[in-house]
């Protein structure tokens, strides 16, 4: 992601902003499983670089929604291609069965930690 000017964390947050369609900072923190202040720092950077904007929630003026800018939407396809290249490289020599087992194991560990 450095080639497109974003850190992995910034890119990850941006993906969730686009997927969740105008999430709040709290929703992003929960989705990414990181602290709200950390999400705030990532949002600040993405806002400075023109990828997201903060907009007041129409139903609750205390809440800010995070929305992707036109730039982010225009570059979304580029981001997806870059992510696909990274994933292809990372999982190139991993058998599908091994990947399925690893995914199941990681989900189990994550569930155990949540309970």
From TrEMBL:
Keyword terms: DNA-binding, Transcription, Transcription regulation
UniProt GO MF annotations: DNA binding; DNA-binding transcription factor activity
Keyword Transcription regulation: yes
Record-linked InterPro entries: HTH_MarR-typ, WH-like_DNA-bd_sf, WH_DNA-bd_sf
Signal peptide: none
Annotated Pfam families: MarR_2
SUPFAM superfamilies listed in its UniProt record: Winged helix' DNA-binding domain (SSF46785)
PROSITE patterns named in the record: HTH_MARR_2
PANTHER family assigned: TRANSCRIPTIONAL REGULATOR, MARR, TRANSCRIPTIONAL REPRESSOR OF EMRAB OPERON
Protein name as annotated: Uncharacterized protein
């Amino acid at each position: 992601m450095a080639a497109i000017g974003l850190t992995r964390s910034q890119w990850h947050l941006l993906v969730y902003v686009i997927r969740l369609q105008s999430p709040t900072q709290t929703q992003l923190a929960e989705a990414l499983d990181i602290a709200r202040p950390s999400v705030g720092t990532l949002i600040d950077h993405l806002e400075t670089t023109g990828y997201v904007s903060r907009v007041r929630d129409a139903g609750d003026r205390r809440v800010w929604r995070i929305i992707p800018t036109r730039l982010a939407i225009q570059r979304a396809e580029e981001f997806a291609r870059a992510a696909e290249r990274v994933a292809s490289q990372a999982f190139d020599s991993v058998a599908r069965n091994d990947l399925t087992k690893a995914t199941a194991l990681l989900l189990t560990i994550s569930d155990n930690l949540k309970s």
